[in-house]
Amino acid sequence: VFRQPSAYNLQVVYTRIQPDGKGGRVFTDHFFNADPDRYFYPASTVKMPVAILALQRLRELGVAGLDRNSTLVTEAAYGGQTSVYNDPTAPDGRPTVAHYIKKIFLVSDNDAYNRLYEFLGPAYINRELQRRGYAEAEIIHRLEIAMSQDENRHTNPVVFTDSSGRVLHRQAAVHHREPYARRSEKLGKAYMKGGVRVEGPMDFSGKNRISLLSLHRILQSVMYPESVPVSARFNLSADDLRFLRELMSATPSSAGHPPYDRETYYDTYCKFLYFGADPGLSIPPDMKVYNKVGDAYGHLLDVACFEDLRTGTSFLLSAVVYCNSD
User: Fold this and answer.
1) Residue 87, burial from CB neighbour count under 10 angstroms (0-12, 13-18, 19+)
2) Closest of 150, 154, 144, 94 to residue 118, by C-alpha
3) Which pLDDT value is given to residue 193?
4) CA separation for the pair 75, 81 (Å, rounded)
5) Angle, helices 97-107/110-120, rounded to nearest 10 degrees
6) What is the pLDDT of residue 323?
7) CA-to-CA distance for 42 and 222, rounded, in angstroms?
8) What whole-number distance in Å separates Cα of residue 309 and Cα of residue 217?
9) What pairs with residue 292 in β-bridges?
10) What is the DSSP letter of 222?
11) 11-19 and 202-203 strand pairing
12) Packing angle of the helix pair 238-248, 97-107 (nearest 10 deg)
């Protein structure tokens, strides 16, 4: 793969982190074949910026009593939309931003991402990412469910309530009319549609897009906010950052709720770079891995920060490979 990086669209970004001798850190970037203009399908890695922005949006709303643990009721008002009034995977059955983020980082839950996408809307998501320097980013659709661009431009009405059912914030259904970039991004030689093989490349021009370097920087901004420009940081509290780091490094078995099946969701599930897909491996007690993975349409990605608690060593490593060309 390394001998033919272009054939596999292999891209790697590595950031070395060293003490500067003055109580701070020095961050040094290294790149292998990283090209922000060469498209790959980002798959579930887009859930990371959406989870971050959901916490930011709650702070921006500034509603007394509204936080990530408030009940989030999702209603339906347009074609393809579905409603959510309870979450059987939550300890008390209440759907919340906190529990959706938990499921995103523990097992890369698609529905959890979709509900946060519906809360935020693509206009807000992309405006906020582009404001922070991620100019190529376009997160413009839900995951796993087949919806047209028009349906993905319409987001559900949502209502936040407190534990007693009192309405804290109501948000109407929105039609997001902002123009998207004109793109021509095609991959592969053939693809399956409705059980039928379609000859010719698949058109990804209407799919989500974000570069590996942008994903790498977004993770860096959560792990080490001081290492990125102020303009690139998200509007998060110290508690928001702690919450994100805790979930990014958690294992499914540590979740409590929902009680994930350990055979399917083993401890190194969604920790691709170091552990691959071997369910027999365990994360060493002196290691922390903060990350978000993605795998779809032949693309395999991992955006990660590693910490060795024994030595104090830490670094960021992100990679994508087009590993399954069918």
Assistant:
1) buried
2) 154
3) 87
4) 8
5) 140
6) 87
7) 19
8) 22
9) 303
10) H
11) unpaired
12) 30
Runs of H (alpha helix) within 158-279: 212-223, 238-248, 272-275
Segments of the chain assigned E as strands: 11-19, 25-32, 71-74, 154-155, 158-161, 167-171, 174-175, 186-187, 190-193, 196-199, 202-203, 287-296, 299-308, 313-322
Residue type, 82: T
pLDDT tens across 34-65, in order? 999 999 999 999 999 999 999 999 999 999 99
How many angstroms separate the CA atoms of 315 and 304, rounded? 9
Distance of alpha carbon 58 from alpha carbon 235, whole angstroms: 10
Q: In the prediction, which pLDDT does 23 show?
A: 87
Specify whether the CB–CB gap between 28 and 16 falls below 8 A. Answer: yes
CA proximity to 183, closest of 202, 203, 201: 203
Sequence-separated (6 or more) residues with CB below 8 Å from residue 205: 183, 184, 185, 186
Both structure tokens of 102: 């938990």
Phi and psi angles of residue 127, each rounded to the nearest 5 degrees, phi first = -60, -45
Query: What pLDDT was estimated at residue 325?
Result: 58
Are the C-beta atoms of residues 320 and 300 closer than 8 Å to each other? yes
Q: Kindly give the parts of the chain with pLDDT less than 70.
A: 325-326
Count of helix runs (H) and strand runs (E) in the chain? 8, 14
Residues, the chain: 326
* Residue 19 Ramachandran class (φ > 0 left, ψ -120 to 50 alpha, else beta): beta
Rounded Cα gap, residues 8 and 319, in angstroms: 12
Q: Rounded CA gap, 153 and 50, in Å? A: 16
Q: How far, in Å, CA of 137 to CA of 141, rounded?
A: 13
18 with 38: CB under 8 angstroms?
no
* Residue 88 burial class via C-beta count within 10 angstroms: exposed 0-12, middle 13-18, buried 19 and up: exposed
Answer yes or no: are the C-beta atoms of 119 and 72 closer than 8 Å.
yes
Residue-level pLDDT at 326:
57
Q: Comparing C-alpha atoms, which of 82, 53, 107 is closest to residue 255?
A: 107
